[in-house]
Amino acid sequence: MQGDGGLSLDGKKIYIHAMVWGGARLMAAAFRACGLDAEVTPPSDAATLEIGSRYTGGDECLPARITVGDYVRVLLERASEADRIVFFMPGADGPCRFGQYAIHLQRLLRQHGFQGTGVLSPSCADGYRMPAALHRTGWRAVVASDILLKLLLQHRPYEIRKGSADELYRECVEQVAGAIEGGPLEPGAQMRALRRALVACRDRFRALPVRRDPSTPLIGVVGEIFCRLNSFSNAELIRRIEEYGAEVWLSDVGEWIWYSHAEQLRLLGLTGRGFSREALAARVRAWIQHRDERRLLEPFARDFAGYAEPSMREILAAARPYLPQQGAIGEMVINVGKAACLARRGVDGIVDISPFTCMNGVVSEAIYPLLSRDLGGIPIRSFYFDGTQADLDGDLGVFLELVRSYRARKPVARPWPWGGRRERPQGRLARAYS
Ligand code: SF4
User: Fold this and answer.
1) pTM, entire model
2) CATH code for residues 4-126
3) DSSP letter string over 51-89?
4) Is pLDDT above 80 for 126?
5) In the structure, which protein residues have their CB atom closer than 6 angstroms to any atom of ligand 1?
């Protein structure tokens, strides 16, 4: 099988960075289902940063340092297999440095004598297209991973035995990975196998002993995709928010795919190709992906009641008064739009997680005071990370105090699909959310 740019993948081992472990594990399963050898990089640790700093110039963003650190570490440990190794590094167009990661990695490999090591870099410019079976299975893996992570975050703050939700999550990821890599490739049969595995995981989560408390604040988390999802990069901020007695609604990976699709169509339209064969193919692909996503989410209608992710159309519309899609590109648009959508769904506060000097984070932070004012004063706090130890406790304590005070006066109740007592929505600020 060939990757993009004619890179042959036959006989190679593809390493996928564990940006979010469950997602990388399921993506590796998707590659294996298509007859390719794929593995997840080992967990990041202090050596990651040390190696990453040695092989980068200092101007790169934290995610570049971490991915380079983890990939080079694989090469240093398996130098004799270097010609068999391919690193998975998706790219992107647009103004930020993400588009340079794959190019930088390729140059670095050549400079250090690893000419035989490949970089597989599907790009958002063409909606991350890969060979058809891999594209479809990979997309299903992304959706399944988002579902399992949502289940974990819905349960972990309420678990009775500490660590039980994480244990169950890991088991479920393995169960779903097994269904992907050991199951059929034919789309209909694969969908049935995947749904069966997800329903089994759903039922196991439903049976997890928890003690729920409807007064738990719900915090929406947006921000740079790598840093918000990679717990090593963000110094376990999600877990720390939970330790402060809150639940987290973490923005999913799928939203970036939908954003890339919207951008692809916008750019085709701008260049007079809005009704071209390319645009038609992109629309058909999106239609199929939407259908797959719906089918995988159907069994979770009860579990995710009130937690449905907003569509990209809704996110872009919510961002438009602040950062219109036509004038701003990238995650800043998604972050601002998503923050507004989450506020309307009843979250009690918003956290933005970004790497230090991240352009998207800086622009979003400049918009947040205006957004907060327009949304009845919802607390929005940006946290930046650069790989050094940060004392977050003081900031988190103050933020959670603001959250509790906002919660007492906000107009929209937080979602609570588990029955029992619910907050009563208050109408005083309802206009801000209309
Ligand atoms: S989104 Fe931010 S951290 Fe990521 S590449 Fe762009 S500037 Fe760097």
Assistant:
1) 0.94
2) 3.40.50
3) HHHHTS-S-S-HHHHHHHHHHHHHHHHTGGGGGGEEEE-
4) no
5) 61, 63, 96-98, 224, 331, 355, 358-360
